[in-house]
Input
Amino acid sequence: MSDTENSHKYILAIDHGTQGPKSAIVSIKGDVIDWAYQEVPILAEKGGGVEQDPDDWWNAILTTAKKVINSGKVSVEDIVGVCNSSQWSGTVALDKDGNHLMNSLIWMDTRGAPYMKKFHKSLIQVSGYSARKMLKFVRITGGGPSLSGKDPIAHILWIKDKRPDVYDNTYMFLEPQDFINLKFTGKFAASYASIQMHTLVDIRDINNMKYYNKLMKMFKVNPDKFPTDLRWSTDILGPLKDEVASELGLNKGVQLIMGAPDLHAATIGSGAIRDYEGHIYIGTSDWLICHVPYKKTDIFHNMGSFPAAIRGKYFVANEQEIAGGALQFLRDKILYHKDELLREEQVPDVYKILDRIVEKVPAGSNNLIFTPWLIGERAPVDDHAVRGGIYNLSLEMSREHLIRAIFEGVAYNVRWLHMYVEKFIQKWKMKANPGMTKKDVVMPELSIIGGGATSNVWCQIFADVLNRTIKQVKDPIQANARGAAFIASVGLGYLTWDQIPDLIQYSNIFKPNPENRAVYDKLFNEFTNIYKIMKKTHKRLNT
Output
């Protein structure tokens, strides 16, 4: 088939995030033709429970997928594949028929924390972790179960203790990613990318990964309840079930490609394919990721290199809990709280209004500092007790200073993470680039994606705070869907990985403003000092 014919082929790409799924029609070269979004409820309860109903996910995916397919913007005949990218580190308990037995515990659920504390109890501990156990996990899986209780294995231990009926009747536990693939195809399977968060797979040989049964015995879980069919993200799982294809209006035989969780797919969609080329994602949470050729773990800053969506590669995985979520908190809980009975149409384009406000406030917000740790933090500190705050507030300030401080506080947090990512990869990059010295900048530029990347003023703040060039990817909120489409395109043979960077378009390039260097260096130092000073107070208040 010619390149001209191929250019008119499309992927139904699903971006299944925490707030709800987006379905998109994306060309095999990454052009987003149409998309639709539907919000799904988050069910939070006291004690750290955060759940979602998997039926809400699937119904929203069907609704949004039918909307874009039926829009008529592309011919159904030209939709050649389906690929999903879902939220990571969630747990769905399923019976043999693929029916879920309870709501999914998602990545925000911390009810497993007591079980992790008990698991790590030992004579020799480092920051609450069992030194002996963590050394074993890090050596084999690249990471280990965190104290936060947010990992799937912690979810499963909570279910085993608090919902033994569910545990006993569970045929298989799947990640949200793999549950959606099951709904599409009827096949129980997982990718090497999605299963990693269970910390049960030996990843030392990237081309020969498999479960390490001794780790399962340490957790006292039944190994039969985990998917044994493990595949690469570009592998074809199989055709859509006939009834699903019929409901969506797709041709029978359309293939589903395994896909990957959100972190992996967003990395692909950002164009950061080559080793050590990084990107920042600013959504509800944030991360700073790049691909690397080796396995390594920085246990002290909660990051490691894990199997990527690209076969044979690892990627540096990390995540911070709150980024754009701080603006959602400002909008929904402070500026336009629902108890004011404001109708939705009375809050038009609030983020654009915030941008205009921030543009008028000088860099540094008059030395006002916001810390965005509203639900704890994962990296570069694993601290579920730490909380956010406003520091150095005075009568001379206004809400304008507060709003800009929130934008800047998220950027300080990302700089904190970025500092350790650069240290993580420096030796490898120097080895790959013989002329490079320790004085050279490790990551001179970063792509930025996610909803936060639509804000030009925020992109400039990131450039100034990090002192790095920031490349604003075009249509940044579509990076996950674009990444899923690229994974499918490679899996179906339409593209190679090397072609993808040249297909990425940028809306703007933001250079650091040297006039802001001094103020941001000073405030960043105080930002990290705030954590050192307040962490014990937060532990007393929130443990």
Summary: Confidence is low (pLDDT under 50) at residues 340-345. The chain has 17 helices and 27 strands.
